[in-house]
Amino acid sequence: MTIPASDPGELAARRDSALRDYEALRARSLSLDLTRGKPSARQLDLADRMLSLPGGHTAADGTDCRNYGGLQGLPELREIFSGPLQVPAGQLIAAGNSSLALMHDSIVHALLDRVPGAERRWVDEPRIAFLCPVPGYDRHFALCERFGIEMISVPMTADGPDMDVVERLVREDAQIKGIWCIPKYSNPSGVSYSDETVRRLAAMPAAAPDFRIFWDNAYAVHHLTDTPVEIADVLALCAGNGHPDRAFVFGSTSKVTFSGGGVAFFGSSEANVAWMLKNTAKRTIGPDKLNHLRHVEFFGDADGVLAHMRRHAELLRPRFDLVETVLTKELGGTGLASWTTPAGGYFVTLDVLPGCAREIVRRAGEAGIALTPAGATHPYGDDPRDSTIRIAPTYPDLAELELAITGLTVCVRLVATEKLLE
Ligand code: PLP
């Protein structure tokens, strides 16, 4: 970020100009929404052929998908997603429609049943803490709050979480049982973990024998460019460094096929998968294998997934390009904000001057532009610098998006110049 103008006269003139723009914005009585990290209807249309699938009901091994059973999910679907999720098909579970539900269940099972390597159930621990790279995903933080798990923030770098901090905390505190990781096109920063970060996560000594990496690879195939980011294979690295049970891998097709009707996956070591299946067997007699079969018929193979994601990218790239263009035009060189230019995923992070994010979100709301609450990207809803704003450009159409981002930049200019004049 360049240094904002320090001349009070010039600043006041900029504030006055921003105020006039803001009043004009309010007068338009807009009703726009930048909060929704969900696919647009046009993206969902890409998978409409699925509505008439499956054509039959018999799996490759003769299983009648209409019936109970098959707890681990259809093998042919696990084969297709084995590559994209970097999990051997035999160590992958294809489950229901939500990976968040699998993360929830993993925590509940760990609370009530010793995970492999644990001395006791997490519920019997005096205290449990998770490391939370920030900015991060609010629903991860909500899960921690739900189960009384203390959250310890760790700063994100351009390569993933600050590993010096992570290594020190995990080595020193045996009550740290987990870390949330969104390793590719992170929500909301768009950061992808470097190979070295993944290696250090896999290799670092942990005081807790039952320390787990919650590897939420939600955006594994959600590329926006023609040069997809590849990340290191966390399960292989954990195994190679003597910590075979360290990582729980999650993923889903929520933003590939249908957000409400996709398939979610859990992958891990053989011991962890056996533990998960043993616990899952108590809550279901089997997953929706017809939906698994529907996905198999729709994709055919892993290349089919990638081809489908290229069609998503064609719809999404213009939206992300538009955000970049408007932010550059309105805020570039002002020193009032910086932002990410993600190569995949669903979000742009806008970083504003410290102490301004909440007020910008409030002013935008008053002008009819709904933004994710400031602070949502941090544990306990508290961004200590009050500077992170998450932008979700996927859902609105291009015209609405342009209006909303332009309006947001007006709020940034107004609040930031007011702040500098304080
Ligand atoms: N994980 C991350 C990082 C997400 O951004 C989202 C949705 O926005 C989810 C998980 C939710 O996944 P699912 O629909 O599979 O429950």
UniProtKB/TrEMBL annotation:
InterPro entries: AspAT_Ic, PyrdxlP-dep_Trfase, PyrdxlP-dep_Trfase_major, PyrdxlP-dep_Trfase_small. Signal peptide: none annotated. It comes from the Bacteria. One of its GO terms (molecular function) is transaminase activity. Pfam families: Asp_aminotransf. The keyword Metal-binding does not apply. Keywords: Aminotransferase, Transferase. SUPFAM superfamilies: PLP-dependent transferases. PANTHER family: AMINOTRANSFERASE, PUTATIVE-RELATED (PTHR43799), ASPARTATE AMINOTRANSFERASE (PTHR43799:SF1). This is Aminotransferase. It comes from Streptosporangium pseudovulgare.
